[in-house]
Amino acid sequence: MRSDRTRRAALALGLALALAGPAAAEPGKTADPIKIAVIGGGNIGGTIGPLWARAGHAVTFASRHPEALKPLAESVGARTGTPEEAVAASDVVFLAVPYRAYPDLARSIGPALKGKVVLDAGNATKARDGELYDAVQAEGIGATSAKFFPGARLVRAFNAANYRVFAKNAAGREGGRMAIPIAGDDPAALKVAEGLVRDAGFEPVVVGGLADASKFAMGSPGFGHDLTAPDLRTKLGLAR
């Protein structure tokens, strides 16, 4: 098994490729931790963000009231800030807020997300999100999120199960790691997402492009499974 340092080095190399292309890569150079902005410190952000911080990444928890996130951040040696501050200081952004917040986020941080790897964990529900839910049903969750954040290197991730399932399985499980389905159109961004999924204690399963994110969206047959990677691939009809 690779060491944490080696894994982070590989992640940083993937991030360099995602941000600037092959010319930016420096094989053999010791990598710094990846700077990750976790937008939202609720159930999902408060579960996944600490896993990355404990894995050695530089995490900033962000919300409109960052002072409320200080106990969470201090417990894992992370920072806090507003969404604008966190995005400006980070290379990867994790969206972990209710879907109804996406229009406001698109206005406040959307332009700053262009060119960044963005992991999108949002789910739309009819009762809470109304017209946004209707748009997701008509266009697909991947396409809808991409419209809010044009130019971002979007990857759908950590949306396909309840946060309690993630918390239960992050430390490992008998029979193999829990699989996390991910989908995105940018191959380099997918590589970064795969590495971060592994650093959080799970096993990534690439389902396809953003159009395929509907296969594991809330309410779909691919949602809500606590499976190993081989079993999830079988469930989703993917090649092993």
Give a description of the structure.
- With 240 residues, the chain is of the alpha/beta class.
- Helix content is 40%, strand content 15%.
- It is built from 11 helices and 8 strands.
- The protein has helices spanning 4-20, 45-54, 70-75, 83-88, 102-108, 126-129, 131-139, 141-148, 163-169, 187-199, 229-236; strands spanning 35-39, 58-62, 79-81, 92-95, 117-120, 153-156, 179-184, 203-208.
- Helix 7 crosses helix 8 (141-148).
- The two termini are 21 Å apart.
Q: What is this structure's SSE topology?
A:
Elements: H1 4-20, E1 35-39, H2 45-54, E2 58-62, H3 70-75, E3 79-81, H4 83-88, E4 92-95, H5 102-108, E5 117-120, H6 126-129, H7 131-139, H8 141-148, E6 153-156, H9 163-169, E7 179-184, H10 187-199, E8 203-208, H11 229-236
Largest sheet: 8 strands, mixed
Radius of gyration: 17 Å
Extract low-pLDDT stretches: 20-31
Determine the structural class based on helices, strands and strand pairing: alpha/beta
Brief summary of the model shown:
The protein has 240 residues and is α/β, with parallel strands linked by helices.
